Amino acid sequence: MKTPSVIGGGAVQVVGTGRFALRGMSLGGHPRRIRPDAKWRPLTTRDEATRLVERLIQRRFDGPSAPVPLDLTYYELQSTLGQLPLAETVDLHGRALFAASSLEPEVCMAVQRVCEVRARRHPPARQVRHRHGDSRP
Predict the structure, then answer these.
(1) Which of 82, 101, 103, 132 fits a 20 to 30 Å CA distance from 59?
(2) Residue 47: what pLDDT?
(3) What is the Cα–Cα distance from 54 to 104, expressed in whole angstroms?
């Protein structure tokens, strides 16, 4: 308990037990209900994260991409990919960021669908003209 884990694609700490579910808390302090049969994985270690970031910086994506299920909703896809170890998804993320033309067309469509949903959920900030003439979001 109280050890951060990745559950449902997000970092959560189990802080207690309940009658039908575990009580969790996100690292941002929001309460989470965790099903007893929920899939989980440990957080990435600092050493592993350093190796993955180095691969992204070097833009070396020679491994196989993680399989992307194409028939899932945005939230299901986010949760499914979030539960995979980062070492398995770094090539997919790297190719999507730096070499999108190397992705299969079906994967490009799925990634585009995810980006569209994310853009609807988090629209860009409006530019407001302030009294002093500068624009701030």
Answers:
(1) 82
(2) 92
(3) 24
Q: How far is CA 67 from CA 33, 91, 101, in A?
A: 28, 11, 17
Tokens of 4: 């951060």
pLDDT tens for 87-126 read: 888 888 788 788 777 777 777 777 677 667 666 766 665 5
SS3 73: coil
Distance CA 93, CA 65 (A): 9
Is the pTM higher than 0.70?
A: no
Q: What's the one-letter identity of residue 116?
A: E
Cα–Cα distance measured from residue 33 to residue 60, given in angstroms and rounded to the nearest whole number:
38
90 in Cβ contact with 52 (< 8 Å): yes
Q: Cα–Cα distance between 65 and 39 in angstroms, integer?
A: 21
If you write DSSP's letter for every residue of 1-46 in order, what string do you get?
A: ----EEETTEEEEEEEE-SSSEEEEETTS-EEEE-TT--EEEPPPH
8 A C-beta contact, residue 102 and residue 64: no
CA distance to 12, 53, 98, 103, 117, per residue, from 46 (Å)? 18, 10, 23, 29, 31
